[in-house]
């Protein structure tokens, strides 16, 4: 799978500490710039539709932010920051959150293949 390969490359080529925390800062800036806060309920519903297990994680600020970003930003931005976020979470030992982000990435990538 392309997302998994990209995650592996990022984790090997770039020391995780080089961008630890930066992905969340980037997500916050994108959410603010695009005024995505108003889309929270739509974003949550879409995340739960795409990955039902996400419902248990929507109160987690990281998953909440990623759902907003993935729903309102461009596909390219959502995939790029999602891969970085997954690597960062894995590095920080937050494997459950990383797994949810990976599942959301897989759905987003699969739904747009061929475009």
TrEMBL record:
This is UrcA family protein. Keywords: Signal. Residues 1-20 form the signal peptide.
